[in-house]
Amino acid sequence: xxxxxxxxxxxxxxxxxxxxxxxxxxxxxxxxxxxxxxxxxxxxxxxxxxxxxxxxxxxxxxxxxxxxxxxxx
Length: 73
Hints:
The chain has helices at 4-20, 25-54, and strands at 56-58, 64-66.
């Protein structure tokens, strides 16, 4: 499985190729589908990271406490 950074870089490349507009329709559709899959994978990773950050809960006394992150899996 590619890393988040690799997926994002590939997604950027796909967007650039699609923006050029010089691909055949079938090739454009294949790239679009791949881009949607990469976008979904990146969003899942970002959502998980956001959840981990949110698990750092500020206590009433002003200190920060890390709490377990439950992914729901």
